[in-house]
Amino acid sequence: MTRPLEQAVAAIVCTFQEYAGRCGDKHKLCQAELKELLQKELPTLSPTEFRECDYNKFMSLLDTNKDCEVDFEEYVHSLASLCLYCYEYFKDCPPRPPCSQ
């Protein structure tokens, strides 16, 4: 039986692989792939009122090597930042049951 952290790591890798390569390089996300990933996999964190220019800005923040794509390392760094933000936001909540703030 896999543990939750093992499942989380597998989900991170599998999600990237599911979306990467639909438009080209299977090891990178183009902006369209990143947009679809955000909309489908993080719907409560990617507002529906995002405009195309918002996705352009988000892409430029994640694309640290400026190759107009997000590779796996850039993707993982963005998820780590999201985890840090969530930890800071929820750190004073009791560990169980999960906070519903």
TrEMBL record:
SUPFAM superfamilies: EF-hand. PROSITE patterns: EF_HAND_2, S100_CABP. InterPro entries: EF-hand-dom_pair (IPR011992), EF_hand_dom (IPR002048), S-100_dom (IPR034325), S100/CaBP7/8-like_CS (IPR001751), S100_Ca-bd_sub (IPR013787). It comes from the Eukaryota. SMART domains: S_100 (SM01394). Residues 54-85 form the EF-hand domain. The keyword Cell cycle does not apply. CDD domains: S-100. Signal peptide: none annotated. It holds the Pfam family S_100. Keywords: Calcium, Metal-binding, Repeat. PANTHER family: PROTEIN S100-A3, S100 CALCIUM-BINDING PROTEIN. Belongs to the S-100 family. This is Protein S100-A3. It comes from Echinops telfairi.
